[in-house]
Write a structure and sequence with these properties.
The chain has 14 helices and no strands. The protein has a single domain (67-113, 122-276), classed as Methane Monooxygenase Hydroxylase, Chain G, domain 1, CATH 1.20.58.480. It is globular. With 277 residues, it is mostly helical. Helix 4 packs parallel to helix 9 and helix 7 (127-135) packs parallel to helix 8. Bound molecules: protoporphyrin IX containing FE. Protoporphyrin IX containing FE binds next to helix 4, helix 12 and helix 13.
Length: 277
């Protein structure tokens, strides 16, 4: 190992200002300053609670990044790119679901020890989670009202509301490949939520049988959709076991409110035809 830079190793005590280091590249010092418990003296479990939420926000960021790429791939007719990226998205989604196991090691008493310190803060206010919903076509303009006007979350969400969703990009992709997607579906208002469409279902049904590659993309999309539903289900169960019937810190009825969000698919047309396949 004659040259430490070529080998990828920095020499201890010999790092110049210019050399890239693990800590510098990843901004580790900055990152590790961001976990600030509110309980005083700090309750042991609050650290886990903060870290896990921050990790979720990072994964949400990554998912938005990947799904933006899926839209680009679809617009460019890059089926392979869309498939590999959906595969990654699906795997991230599985990780998101799996992480709830860690939070479930926290007992109701342990959570109660610092819950008051959250005041009215809640995952309900996660702008990136709403961005994900909007990007996937679950558009609810009224959710903008939960974000302070002009805040970064409100600006990002308003942009997502106006932009075509993954589903819109997908229909556009199919139309460009010559499939007769109805004009009404292609020219729909991007601010409206995706609604099931029987004409689209008919086309998807035929494609499932006729085009193997496309059917693999459809399956990846169903995987992703199922993953999001799985996350919602696991989140509700975690909420039930941790706070029971208590209302949420965000002001909702808690588990009862969350139960209403279950089993809503983001790609309903792909689910509607499965009994025919
Ligand atoms: C002990 C752990 C947790 C509890 C007790 C909990 C509780 C709740 C409750 C009661 C709500 C309903 C809104 C409210 O009134 O606050 C909610 C919403 C939400 N939580 Fe959690 N949560 C926990 C962990 C997490 C984690 C780790 C995440 C990851 C980001 C998360 C993300 C969300 C999201 C995105 C919503 C909005 C869901 C929707 O509106 O469909 N939560 N949570």
């Amino acid at each position: 190992m004659s040259n430490p830079h070529e080998s990828g190793y920095a020499t201890p005590g010999n790092a110049t200002q210019k050399s890239v280091t693990y800590a510098g590249y990843l901004r580790v010092d900055d990152l590790l300053k961001l976990q600030v418990p509110r309980s005083s003296p700090a309750e042991h479990d609050e650290m886990l609670f903060i870290v896990i939420h921050q990790v979720y926000e990072l994964w949400f960021k990554c998912l938005l990044h990947e799904l933006d790429k899926v839209c680009d791939d679809l617009r460019r007719g890059n089926l392979h790119g869309a498939m590999t990226t959906f595969k990654r998205g699906r795997t991230i989604m599985k990780t998101l679901v799996g992480q709830l196991d860690i939070l479930e090691t926290m007992t109701p008493m342990e959570f109660s020890s610092f819950r008051d310190r959250l005041e009215s803060a809640s995952g309900f206010q996660s702008a990136q989670f709403r961005e994900l919903e909007f990007l996937l076509g679950y558009k609810r303009p009224e959710y903008l009202n939960y974000f302070e006007a002009g805040s970064s979350g409100a600006v990002a969400l308003a942009r997502r509301l106006r932009s075509p969703s993954v589903w819109d990009a997908f229909l556009d992709f199919l139309a460009k490949r010559g499939h007769p997607i109805p004009c009404a579906a292609l020219e729909r208002n991007p601010e409206a939520a995706t609604e099931p469409d029987e004409q689209v279902q008919e086309i998807l049904f035929k494609l499932y049988k006729a085009e193997t590659e496309l059917s693999l993309l459809f399956e990846l999309m169903v995987d992703f959709d199922e993953g999001l539903q799985e996350w919602r289900y696991r989140h509700v169960k975690m909420v039930e076991r941790t706070i029971g019937f208590k209302p949420g810190t965000g002001g909702s009825s808690g588990a009862e409110f969350l139960r209403r969000t279950l089993f809503r698919s983001v790609f309903p047309d792909l689910w509607a035809i499965r009994h025919r396949l």
